[in-house]
Amino acid sequence: MKKIIYTLVTLLLLASVCIIVVVNSIVHVQLQHGAVLHVLPTYIKNKTDGAVIICPGGGYSYLEKWYEGYGWFPFFMIQGYTPAMLEYRMPKHNYKSPMIDGAEAVLMMKKHAKEWHFDEDNVGIMGSSAGGHLASTMMVINNDAVRPDFGILFYPVISMRKELTHIDSHDQLLGKCASQQLEYQFSNELHVSDKTPPVFIAVTNDDACVNPRNSILFNEEMHARNRRSELHIYPTGGHGFVCHLRSEYRGQVLEELADWLSVMKSQKN
Questions:
Q1: Which of 75, 182, 188, 226 can pair with 136 through a Cys bridge, CB separation 3.0 to 4.6 Å?
Q2: Are 152 and 199 in contact (CB under 8 A)?
Q3: Which residues contact 230 (CB under 8 A, 6 or more apart)?
Q4: Cα-to-chain-centroid distance, residue 155
């Protein structure tokens, strides 16, 4: 019994040391308008192939920084990507704020690509829930300089149309009395173009928080324009299923995402 306890204590201590080392290695980059980009760079040449900007969810009212942010760092490091978590500003009905932060994050990552040793032309963006709205907005933006090279969306809010959207995210971003024109502007499924980058999307069929049709319609628009889109719909798990350690399909999602990233990497090379 004592050996088991000693082993567990040793493992906990090692895990604690690893966490401390990782946390102390994170670079906190202040962006121009107040957002913060938390980057875990590598300074070893040719160590990573690309980078991923992670946008946590929180309904545009707060940020789920740990489960949907920092918690993804080990996965992307193992896949050969430099992870960066974007602590974007809450809009408080000023819809421009998070979009400006997203654009500045892409520019900042590309600016430091050589210093942090990853491919400048392989900077992706990942978003969960409301963070998926920010990520998909950056994917459809009509600006080559700040458009990411690929996207990863988990149970994302994509539309701002009231029949599809997550209403709390809608109200925080645009306000309860937003015009139809503004809702159209930020319904990203309506703005897929020939320049929209490849995307991996994962949702569950029983998500009672964000309607899976957000992702289905976005995927349909991607295919209609011959853009690469891989949509995975799992039968159960609910909203946030990828971050639940006991989720039945968590392991499958991670495996399928790893495969997708590997294929993307091989095609880029």
A1: 188
A2: yes
A3: 199, 200, 201, 260
A4: 10
- 129: phi > 0 → left, psi -120 to 50 → alpha, else beta; which? left
- Yes or no: say if 196 and 224 are a contact pair by the CB < 8 Å rule: no
- 210 CB-contact burial (10 Å; exposed 0-12 / middle 13-18 / buried 19+): buried
Instruction: List the one residue out of 216, 207, 175 whose CA is nearest residue 60.
Output: 175
**Distance of alpha carbon 215 from alpha carbon 232, whole angstroms:** 10
Question: Domains in the chain, please, with CATH?
Answer: 27-268 (3.40.50.1820)
Asked if the model's pLDDT at residue 6 lies above 50, the reply is no
pTM of the predicted structure, to 2 decimals: 0.91
CA torsion 154-159-165-167 (nearest 10°) is 100
What distance, in Å, lies between the first and last C-alpha atoms of the chain?
52
Averaged pLDDT, 6-11: 38
At residue 70, φ and ψ (nearest 5 deg) are -55, -30
The β-bridge partners of 229 are 199
How far apart are alpha carbons 173 and 182 in whole angstroms?
Answer: 10
